Amino acid sequence: MKLYSAKSTFQHDEAPAVGVLVANLGTPDEPTEPALRRYLRQFLSDPRVIEIPRWRWWPILYGIVLRTRPKKSAAAYSEVWEQDGSPLLSIGQRQAAGIRQRLQALNDRGPFAVELGMRYGNPSIPAALRRLRESGARRILVLPLYPQYSASTTGSTFDAVARELMGWRWVPELRMVGQYHDEPVYIQALARSIREHWEHEGRGERLLFSYHGVPERYLLDGDPYHCQCLKTSRLVAEELGLEPGTWDVTFQSRFGNEEWLKPYTDETVTRLAQEGVKHLDVVCPGFSADCLETLEEIAGENREYFEESGGERLRYIPALNDRPDHLEALTALVLQHGQGWREVDGGRDPEAEQRRRAETAERARAQGAER
């Protein structure tokens, strides 16, 4: 029995590639109760997500949550499911393809291999890493599509990558993008998307920046997520020239009974409507791709809260998704964090490198190697 896995074939003259793992949270395989049960079991079993001792959490998870939540979640996913499947997955595939196309267009750099991997569900992070290995990646850059760092997202992605690499015989050089919440290319893309939305749809009286919530104790225990969300919002507001009092920061998607980061999005949209705000715009800068939390929770559920409380129009401003400026920003992050790797720095001479690889293969065969 082999303890460690390796690339299926190896040739001494192959060109080593830089692999880019584009990672996101994940999605169920289909909007059905069995599929949601599998997905939620994996998601809610992650100790990075639920920081409760297992002996306390398992009875709740298996005795209550996995018996009641899959049906409700399946119904919610059915509302956003598209002809080609989960929006998060289809957008993620287009994002990975766009980054790949832009990297491969850099003639004096590379070669590059780009794969999409989901922390939960499919395509999985282990499967994506193995595909990168088969593409010849000896250096891998992990790009989690979470602009703001949280242990429950970016930290969990690192856990999944490390767990897979622990079983590899030849471990690649590894780098990871920890956060990009204040990168100018990201801030400018966000501001541009908001301006374009206002040009086409009109501008609301207030702009709400809504982020996925986490338990408040994560912040108190040292997680920087809350601070980074506030900074992203401030920088975008400055880029847009917004006056104080015309924008707010809130947190959505809370789960369970403990205190989460406040103010809560649902309570805020209700309060704003009751205070007389008629037109409200909501943007979700923490989501790099539209998904259940943006399409169903914000554009659907919270829009209803707003209108039922007296508001006239809540408009959701789409995530950056596969906008060209977003893909260019993500590609720039890859190049920035890959500095020092000769495949990334540029100035390659492909013909000279091919000659050197051929010479290496010839020497290897002279020593008895098959390839």
Automatic annotation (TrEMBL):
InterPro entries: Ferrochelatase (IPR001015), Ferrochelatase_AS (IPR019772), Ferrochelatase_C (IPR033644), Ferrochelatase_N (IPR033659). It is found in: Cytoplasm. Fe(2+) binds at H212, E293. Residues 341-371 are annotated as: Disordered. One of its GO terms (molecular function) is ferrochelatase activity. It is an enzyme of class 4 (lyase). GO terms for biological process: heme biosynthetic process. Coiled coil: none annotated. It comes from the Bacteria. The keyword Cell division does not apply. One of its GO terms (cellular component) is cytoplasm. Pathway: Porphyrin-containing compound metabolism; protoheme biosynthesis; protoheme from protoporphyrin-IX: step 1/1. The keyword Cell inner membrane does not apply. Signal peptide: none annotated. It catalyses: Fe-coproporphyrin III + 2 H(+) = coproporphyrin III + Fe(2+); heme b + 2 H(+) = protoporphyrin IX + Fe(2+). Its EC number is 4.98.1.1. SUPFAM superfamilies: Chelatase. Its main location: cytoplasm. Keywords: Cytoplasm, Heme biosynthesis, Iron, Lyase, Metal-binding, Porphyrin biosynthesis. PANTHER family: FERROCHELATASE (PTHR11108), FERROCHELATASE, MITOCHONDRIAL (PTHR11108:SF1). Catalyzes the ferrous insertion into protoporphyrin IX. Belongs to the ferrochelatase family. HAMAP family: Ferrochelatase (MF_00323). This is Ferrochelatase. The gene is hemH.
